[in-house]
Amino acid sequence: MPRQGKINSSVAAHKLSVLLRARVVLPISRPPIEDGAIAISGNRILAVGKWKDLSRRRSGRVVELGEVILLPGLVNSHCHLDYTAMAGQLAPAKKFTDWLKLITTSKGGWTYSDFAESWLEGANMLVRTGTTTVADIEMVPELLPDVWTSTPLRVMSFLEMTGIRSGRPPKEIIREALEKIKSLPKGHCRMGLSPHAPYSTKPELLRLAANASRRQRLLVTTHVAESEQEFDMFNDRRGDMFDWLARNQRDMSDCGIGTPVQHMERQGALNEKLLAVHVNYLGPGDAALLGRRKVNVVHCPRSHTYFRHQPFPLAQLLSARVNICLGTDSLASVYKARKRSVELSMFDEMRELASRMPSLPPEKILQMATINGARALGRTGEIGEFCRQAFADMITIPLAGKPVEAFEEVVYHRGQVTASMIDGQWVVPPPGLNT
User: Fold this and answer.
1) Domain 13-73+385-428 CATH (choose: 2.30.40.10, 2.60.40.650, 3.40.50.2000, 3.40.50.450)
2) Structure confidence by residue, pLDDT tens digits, 192-226
3) For residues 338 and 85, what is the distance between their CA atoms, to the nearest angstrom?
4) Domain layout of the chain by residue ranges
5) Taking residues 52-68, what's their average pLDDT?
């Protein structure tokens, strides 16, 4: 089956309901198309190509989008929507463990309504700023499925699991999570597991999550090697995190025998269904190990800057052929200047990455925010690119320069999108659209 181009004879003309025309169509998986068009039927893409080619076979409504770049909706591969209202409340701490203590104290006084309002505020931000699919960590599973029905976003909800402080048995934690997943409706939104991090979970919980992933084909996401303190704890059995958790009765026998990545490997947790978030600190051989196991790595540029981590090991990971995608993390770990507002925005993440790594081509950065995220979420060919039979998830931004500079314009775009469509429905209608 062809992935793009003219509508072939197997597609009846009368099924075409909408033909979108834009100054530039940016499929991601192929070069920009000047004076391009996309044919849509229902919630699926039928064809992508030049306006002059597709318009010959059109039979539905034509929507002229004008001087814009039309591109796939952005894929946010790591987010904490329920922390959105914490924006600007936590000043950057000198130590990562200090920040952990701050956020634990801050959310300790929140009610169910506080978390729900924060979640929905974050979801609205993402819609305005071009995200159409988000992988979200759910600390409050009671919010599901109600919040799903309150947003048009495609949501991949990962149930957060810890267990160190509570002392609950890992088997009980995983059983409860799997029962929650089983109880929720199947459809637009999906579910996965999120053992929080190697330092905040028992090794058994990591093993059980990996086993459940294999048996039930579930995705798993875990914060891995996020801080230097975590690296020192596992690799060298020392440092502030080691001392803090030892005082809190964590069994530290899994420390001093390798890096956080090697710790995950010992638990059988490294595989193609894992989204390893952050991965800022690597030891010798770690990148190659991640590549061999086909692990997906999620980089959160603004959070990385907020914590003043050492440079992200992008070159090592790319050399090992690791699939790297982007996420926003939460606004609790994004720097907020006085009298300035901050939003959950993948454009802001792309721009931050570009400023930190100016030699990285804009095409590669945009791929991390679209097609790479789709791959990590197991949705290649469905989201993150324009191809035949992909979902009709797309956004537009103004075209200010030349069509050949479309990738750069997207990466450096600021603010909101001018239009957004999810599952074939306008959620941010184009200006002047007669609905």
Assistant:
1) 2.30.40.10
2) 999 999 999 999 999 999 999 999 999 999 999 99
3) 16
4) 13-73+385-428, 74-376
5) 88
Residue 416 near residue 128 (C-beta atoms within 8 A): yes
- The token duo for 310 is 């050492």
CA distance 267 to 259: 13
- Residue 401 bridge partners (DSSP): none
Phi first, then psi, for residue 151 (nearest 5°) are -140, 145
Is pLDDT of 22 > 50?
A: yes
* Whether 98 contacts 57, CB under 8 Å: no
Angle among Cα 10, 16, 20 to the nearest 5 degrees reads 125
Tell me if the domain spanning 74-376 has CATH number 3.20.20.140: yes
CA–CA distance, 361 with 371 (Å, rounded to integer):
15
Residue 14 has pLDDT above 60, yes or no: no
Q: What is the 3-state secondary structure (H, E, C) of 36-62?
A: EEEEEECCEEEEEEEHHHHHHHCCCEE
Report pLDDT for 165. 77
User: What sign for the dihedral angle of Cα 78, 82, 87, 91?
Assistant: negative
pLDDT at 10: 34
State the residue for tokens 């095409």. 363
Q: Could you give the CA distance from residue 429 to residue 435 in angstroms, rounded to a whole number?
A: 9
Lowest mean pLDDT, pick from 29-38, 98-107, 321-330: 98-107
CB 269 within 8 A of CB 289: no
